[in-house]
Design goal:
Length: 271
C-alpha cells in the first residue's frame, strides 16, 4: 500500500511537471473509485491553472487557481506522468491532461483511491480536518509524543499508526521506527520514558526520510511517478524479517500479530 514516503516521492516527481500548467482536460474512464467521481468534475476543472502540488498525510493536493483537487492513492494506486497519447493499461481510471501534452494518469487495480474537488479551504475538508500533525514537521516533536502517550494504555505501535495523532506512519515505518528507538511494539504507550519518546520521534523521522530519499519502499506493486520501483526494502531492519537474525545483534527477529497487523521486533535490542 502506498504510504507517506511513496506519496511524497510521487509529489516530488510530479511537482516540476504540473507547476503553472493548465488543465487541458480531465478524462475519466472509471468513476467508481472509493467515492464516485462527480460527473461535473471534468467541466469544473478544465482550463484551470495548477499552482502547485502539496501533500497532507497520504493525500495529494493539487492547488488550482480556483479550488483544490484531493487525490488519494488508496490501497494499490499510483499516479504517473505519461504522454497523453500513451496507450492505456488495464485499471487506468483517469487522465488529468495538461497543456504540455503530459497526462497524470491514475492506475488503481483495487479502486480504493479517490479523486475529489473542494472549492473552500482544503485543510478544513472532512477528510483532512481531523488529521494529526505531519511527522516531518516541528509539530511532531518529543514533547508532543510524550504528551499524547501519557495515560494511554494502547500499544505504542498502534498509537503511532493512529492518523488522528500523527499522520503517515504505516505498518512498515512503525515497526522500523520502534526498532531504531529500541522500544517493543506492544509496550503500553504510557510506559514510555521521556528519553524513549524522544528516540521514537527521531526514529520515525529517520525512517521516513530514508524511505523518501530511496524513492519510497513499497514493496510489491508500488512504482513512483516515473515508474521506478522503490529501493528501500533492502534496508529494513525488522519488517517481514521474522525468524531472521537481527541486523544489529544476530538474535532472531520475532513476529507477532497486533490489531490484525504484523509486528516485528528484536527481543534483545528492544525493551
Ligand atoms: Zn537485535
Amino acid at each position: 500500500m502506498p504510504e507517506l514516503p511513496e506519496v511524497e516521492t510521487t509529489r516530488r516527481g510530479l511537482a516540476p511537471r504540473v507547476r503553472k500548467r493548465r488543465i487541458a482536460a480531465l478524462v475519466i474512464y472509471e468513476r467508481r473509485l472509493r467515492w464516485p467521481v462527480a460527473r461535473s468534475l471534468s467541466r469544473k476543472v478544465a482550463g484551470l491553472r495548477i499552482l502547485r502540488i502539496e501533500r497532507r498525510g497520504k493525500y495529494l493536493l493539487l492547488r488550482l487557481e480556483s479550488g483544490t483537487l484531493l487525490l488519494h492513492l488508496g490501497m494499490s494506486g499510483n499516479l504517473r506522468a505519461v504522454r497523453a497519447d500513451t496507450a492505456r493499461l488495464p485499471h487506468d481510471h483517469f487522465d488529468l491532461v495538461l497543456d504540455s501534452g503530459i497526462a497524470l494518469r491514475f492506475n488503481d487495480p483495487r479502486r480504493f483511491g479517490s479523486l475529489l474537488y473542494t472549492r473552500g479551504d482544503a485543510h478544513a475538508h472532512p477528510l483532512l480536518a481531523h488529521l494529526g500533525p505531519e511527522p516531518l514537521t516541528r509539530a511532531f516533536d518529543a514533547d508532543y509524543l510524550w504528551g499524547i502517550t501519557r495515560r494511554r494504555r494502547v500499544a505504542i505501535k498502534q498509537l503511532l499508526m493512529n492518523s488522528h495523532l500523527v499522520v503517515g506512519v504505516g505498518n512498515i515505518y512503525a515497526n522500523e521506527a520502534l526498532f531504531r528507538a529500541r522500544v517493543r511494539p506492544q509496550r503500553p504507550a504510557r510506559t514510555l520514558s521521556r528519553t524513549e519518546a524522544a528516540r521514537l520521534v527521531r526514529g520515525v523521522r529517520a525512517v521516513l526520510q530514508q524511505a523518501i530519499r530511496a524513492g519510497g519502499t513499497t514493496l510489491r506493486d508500488y512504482r513512483g511517478a516515473d515508474g521506478a520501483p522503490g529501493y528501500f526494502r533492502q534496508r529494513l531492519y525488522v519488517y517481514e524479517r521474522g525468524g531472521k537474525p537481527c541486523r544489529r545483534c544476530g538474535t532472531p527477529v520475532r513476529a507477532v500479530t497486533q490489531g490484525q497487523r504484523s509486528s516485528y521486533y528484536c527481543p534483545a535490542c528492544q525493551r
